[in-house]
Design a protein that fits this description.
Residues 31-182 form the Type I restriction modification DNA specificity domain. Helices cover 37% and strands 19% of the residues. The chain is built from eleven helices and 23 strands.
């Protein structure tokens, strides 16, 4: 710890008052039947994502009069929120609206005379996250026993308020660029979908799926060859299709292995069948994941045309215990493709936009790597803010 930094406990930097550290209502007090179509939004674990603020997608609400019966559980601008059950280690900072904590959440209201809330947010992205994880049970659903006592007892190190704000600004610049990329990527996806819908007009044709696409199924790489990340080559498994990060690598080589590159269309074959552009680094296609490549057209059209048939397959299979996609399902389906002129026009429009969307995702991963490299260095005082600023200026 650098000279001039302070060591304290989280309980020491909380705002005065009993409600500055609190958990959500007991489960029996906030049942699902209380949810409504509007009112005060409820923060659940799925609303704490990779960004700084609450992810407002898939929110549920309770009537305001219900929320006001739990005054200690209402969070406001600047409060930090954490799961104490489930996704331990995640953290978000509340923006400009009120929320109600769910039963699996806890909050911290900081004393602004001692610490900057955004600095504390980033602290819990680094050293504080490790502290939370060490306090969590690893049996069954992860959970922190005595969550309020545990949160209060976490050590925190901080410099002057001016330095805290400078550190938060450096890291925030990277997160702002990451967030801007996400917005542009989402817009690119919407554009491609819109262009596809407009292109399948009266000249559209229906083509058997297996005649229009080359389908490659992943290989059954063996468990004995699995390795830690960085050893061998990354495997792309179903669970990686949401994060675009390969958690398992392999040292195995197989004759029919398929290498997936950014922008390729992949589909998980269990539970839900959603075509996805792979946005991670190059990796090996594992079993229960397939790749779809267009015959005479690119990945943008391949993905858009696959949405409807995969949705139909998923629809008629729903109701079984675990649904699986297989080759015979695909053989019975057809794709709706634009006529020749519309197809060429779509390709000219969509493929450059898809390439840009993929490049933005690659840049976003690089920015996150820089942020995650700088964060522990800044939080320990091992790197000065002005040196970190030079690094950020080179990538933002």
């Amino acid at each position: 710890m650098r000279q001039g930094w302070t060591r304290a406990l989280v309980g020491d930097v909380a705002a005065p008052g009993a409600r500055s550290i609190a958990i959500g209502p007991f489960g029996s007090s906030l049942k699902a039947e209380l949810y409504a179509g509007h009112g005060i939004p409820v923060i659940r674990g799925q609303n704490i994502a990779d960004g700084r603020q609450i992810d407002d997608t898939d929110l549920v609400f309770v009537p305001e009069e219900v929320a006001r019966t739990f005054p200690a559980c209402i969070v406001r601008a600047g409060d930090l929120v954490f799961p104490h059950r489930g996704a331990i280690g995640r953290v978000a900072i509340v923006g400009g609206r009120e929320y109600l904590l769910s039963s699996s959440m806890m909050k911290l209201t900081c004393n602004p005379e001692l610490v900057d809330p955004t600095y504390v947010f980033y602290y819990f992205r680094g050293p504080g996250k490790r502290e939370l994880l060490t306090r969590a049970s690893t049996v069954g659903t992860p959970g922190i026993g005595q969550p309020l006592k545990s949160l209060r007892g976490i050590p925190i190190y901080f410099p002057s308020l001016e330095q805290q704000r400078a550190i938060a600004e450096v890291l925030g610049a990277l997160d702002d660029k990451i967030a801007a990329n996400r917005v542009t990527e989402s817009t690119a996806e919407e554009l491609i979908s819109t262009w596809y819908r407009h292109s399948v007009n009266s000249d559209a044709v229906s083509v058997p799926l297996m005649n229009a696409l080359d389908i490659t199924f992943g290989e059954p790489f063996g468990g004995p060859h699995f390795s830690e990340p960085g050893v061998g080559r990354p495997l792309i498994r179903i669970r990686d299709l949401k994060t675009f990060e390969s958690q398992v690598w392999t040292t195995e080589h197989r004759p029919k292995e398929r290498i997936i590159r950014p922008g390729d269309v992949v589909v998980g074959m269990d539970a839900e069948f959603r075509p996805t552009w792979w946005l991670g680094t190059e990796g090996l296609l594992n079993q229960r994941v397939l790749q779809a490549s267009g015959r005479g057209f690119g990945s943008a059209l391949a993905l858009e045309a696959l949405r409807a048939p995969l949705s139909r397959i998923e629809g008629y299979k729903t109701g079984t215990t675990v649904i699986h996609l297989n080759k015979s399902d695909l053989s019975r389906e057809a794709l709706v493709l634009p006529g020749e002129d519309a197809l060429n026009r779509f390709e000219r429009q969509a493929e450059p936009v898809l390439r840009h969307r993929v490049s933005l995702a690659t840049e976003r991963r690089a920015l996150a790597d820089v942020r995650d490299l700088l964060l522990p260095q800044l939080m320990s005082g091992k790197i000065r803010v002005r040196d970190a600023e030079r690094v950020v200026e080179g990538v933002v």
